[in-house]
Design goal:
With about 375 residues, the protein is α+β, with helices and mostly antiparallel strands. It has twelve helices and 13 strands. It folds into two domains: about 110 residues, Aminopeptidase; about 210 residues, 3-Layer(aba) Sandwich (Aminopeptidase), CATH 3.40.630.30. It is about 30% helix and about 30% strand. Helix 4 packs antiparallel against helix 5 and helix 9 crosses helix 10. The longest helix is centred in the middle third of the chain and has 16 residues.
Length: about 375
């Protein structure tokens, strides 16, 4: 039973569909893309970033696993390198231990394609396997602020997992002790980390223009490791049509000149595994000089509040951007999202204690804002 790793193509669509059905029947929530053409940034000649799909095929007909890659231009210590985000692998090891070796096999296959490989959000079991293979691991935080405590206590699903918890949270909510305590905690966090921000003007724009190139050229050297965020890169990642729909691009100016930007999503969740039925705002990406992080985040935060959200969240890695969120009263939960990177990338980033201070990672650097795109 020979297993080969091959590019996804139309001829395997029915086999991927069968793979997904077996995964569901076995109790797994994971599956893979039936369509061989990515809905987000499919390959185009001359492109500087794209997505590609690969399959583990047994006997040339049965799909047993899969993964996706997103090659992209990055700056690492001032030099241009091609790094690739690795999504997966998704294998039948989830439901049949016979296929446990596939994790290792697919990791090796991905490394052969792109040696400077990384992934965001691996499960602990996968992370341990990667670590044994010489990969580096670095924990990044989940940052959030509850805007409407009453709705958060009653509508979130992450905390309301048992009958006892639901009863306690309902009591906490309707007694108004909970909402008052949460609002007070946010105010105290903001007060204890308060920093003065510059007066800014925020504008919703349809796309990234020449102003984005100016911001990129002026500030890219302030980061140690960062994906290209010029006009071309951002308009490719956030196209006018296609996935992900629902992005709002915010251009932030101070003293009459653009200083940075952010990308946000707002979505009313319905029975989401984490957010339940909350209306959630996501800061999916951002860029400016690190010294201007708070100057970009404050108007971004105010914009999302004006969208009547219950909760605002973000995944970030750069210390100055995290500090900006902390200044706004956000709760920072450390080490909630794992950044895993291949041995060759590990050598490029060494020493990690220094490179982490200049590492800028957001949702768009990984697999995208899954769960926040417009329906």
């Amino acid at each position: 039973m020979a297993i080969e790793v091959v590019p996804h193509s139309r001829e395997f669509s029915s086999a991927v569909e069968a793979f997904n059905l077996r995964m569901r029947a076995g109790g797994s929530e994971w599956g893979f893309y039936v369509d061989s053409t990515p809905d987000w940034i499919p390959f185009k000649e001359g492109a500087r970033t794209w997505r590609e799909y690969h399959l583990a095929v047994e006997d040339q007909k049965v799909v047993r696993g899969a993964y996706a890659l997103k090659p992209q231009e990055w700056l690492v210590n001032g030099e241009v390198h091609w790094l690739a985000d690795w999504q997966g692998p998704f294998t039948e090891a989830e439901i049949n231990t016979k296929y446990s070796p596939l994790m290792l096999r697919l990791a090796r296959a991905a490394e052969k394609q792109y040696q400077l490989l990384f992934s965001l959000g691996h499960k602990p079991d996968d992370a341990r396997t990667l670590q044994k293979m010489g990969w580096g691991l670095y924990g990044t935080p989940f940052c959030f602020q509850v805007i409407k405590p009453l709705r958060f206590l009653l509508k979130n699903k992450y905390l309301r997992t048992t009958k006892l918890r639901r009863f306690a949270l309902d009591l906490f909510a309707y007694s108004f002790v909970g909402p008052f305590a949460m609002k007070t905690a946010t105010a105290l966090l903001r007060l204890s980390n308060s920093r003065k921000a510059q007066e800014t003007h925020v504008e919703v724009v349809d796309s990234f223009g020449d102003w984005a190139d100016e911001i990129w050229k002026a500030n890219k050297s302030a980061y140690g490791t960062i994906a290209f965020r010029d006009k071309e890169a951002m308009n490719t990642l956030l196209p006018a049509t296609g996935w992900p729909q629902g992005a709002t691009r915010l251009k932030v100016s101070a003293d009459g000149r653009p200083i940075g930007w952010s990308v946000v999503f707002v979505k009313q969740m319905v029975d989401d595994s984490r957010f339940g039925s909350l209306k959630v705002g996501l800061v999916a990406d951002c860029f400016a000089h690190p010294d201007d992080a708070l100057n970009v985040l404050r108007p971004t935060h105010e914009y999302l509040k004006s969208c009547d959200v219950d909760l605002i969240c973000s995944n970030m890695s750069h210390p100055d951007w995290i500090s900006g969120l902390r200044s706004l009263g956000y709760i920072i939960l450390e080490n909630r999202r794992l950044y895993a990177f291949s041995p060759k990338l590990k050598r490029l980033l060494d020493p990690l204690s220094e490179s982490a201070c200049g590492l800028h990672l957001t949702n768009l650097d990984g697999h995208g804002p899954h769960g926040f795109e417009a329906d």
